[in-house]
Amino acid sequence: MSLRSNRIAEQMKKELGEILGRKIKDPRVGFVTVTDVAVTGDLQQATVYISSLGNEREREETLKALEKASGFIRSEIGSRIRLRRTPEILFEFDSSVEYGNKIDALLRSLHEDK
Length: 114
Description:
Elements: H1 3-22, E1 32-39, E2 45-52, H2 56-68, H3 70-80, E3 88-93, H4 96-113
Parallel strand pairs: 2-3
Antiparallel strand pairs: 1-2
Helix pairs in contact: 1-3
């Protein structure tokens, strides 16, 4: 990614955190954290990586609610960040937090065995 795409990704991450926390009123969207935003080089698409509390079914409901609200979220981003074209927003779950917790649990179990 170029320097400009990185700057826009960071700005989008900041704004998305505020939008998801204050503007989205859907009860299916609970405690959602934006972990990363990846913007393509031509600024046409942005993949938003999120983490959420809950079981697998609740996470799928959260993802559906965010996809349903993506038009509203995109218009909010467009009004907050001055771009010629606002990127299309795609949501994905970030499994790195769960993976890190799993590795941490394995390391702790190894230390307990000694």
